[in-house]
Specification:
By secondary structure, the protein is mainly alpha-helical. The protein contains seven helices and three strands. A three-stranded antiparallel sheet has the order 1-3-2. The protein is globular and about 55 Å long.
């Protein structure tokens, strides 16, 4: 789906073999996240991208994640480092297969691991609500490129903090 594209609650329910109630609830949640726009008596559509909101969401996510990495340096376990390394390999494999959905699912898992390990899992959902547009913009950018899917973050960007965490736990 692309920004501005109409969404049919009825078609989604039929395709997913669900009643319309859970589909309606999901669309309302997406509306709260400003990812879809619902116009009573007129219809629903994928929200248009607002670069200002995307930029603000990216800023929020980066700020929180940097603070989280700093916190993790003080308390992370070897087990977590291994789980994060495995997750990154799975993200790379998904990228090589050009499986954008799997890549983003693994990316979400990565963040869940980190937030949980730092005892900050309760802020993950509100953060995602405010940064959803960043992921949509990233997915649209990846889909719009007529070339092989690659991770939008260099491997070293992800591996360096994990290596730093590993060194921090050695002391």
């Amino acid at each position: 789906m692309v920004p501005g594209e109409p969404i049919s609650e009825k078609e989604i329910a039929k395709k997913l073999e669900l009643s319309r109630t859970p589909v309606r609830e999901a669309l309302l949640e997406l509306c709260r996240e400003r990812l879809v726009e619902i116009y009573p008596q007129r219809g629903t559509r994928v929200a248009l991208m607002d670069s200002r909101l995307v930029d603000q969401g990216r800023f929020l996510r980066e700020t929180v994640e940097l603070a989280l990495l700093e916190l993790a340096c003080r308390s992370v376990s070897k087990d977590l480092i291994e789980q994060m390394e495995e997750n990154l390999k799975e993200q790379e494999e998904a990228a090589q297969r050009e499986d954008i959905i799997e890549f983003f699912l693994k990316d979400n898992d990565f963040h869940r691991l980190l937030f949980t390990a730092c005892g900050k899992e309760s802020i993950l959902h509100p953060l995602r609500m405010k940064t959803g547009r960043c992921l949509v913009a990233k997915a649209l950018a990846l889909g719009a490129r007529n070339r092989r899917f690659e991770s939008s973050r260099p491997e070293s960007f992800l591996r360096a903090p994990i290596a730093q965490l590993d060194r921090a736990t050695a002391f």
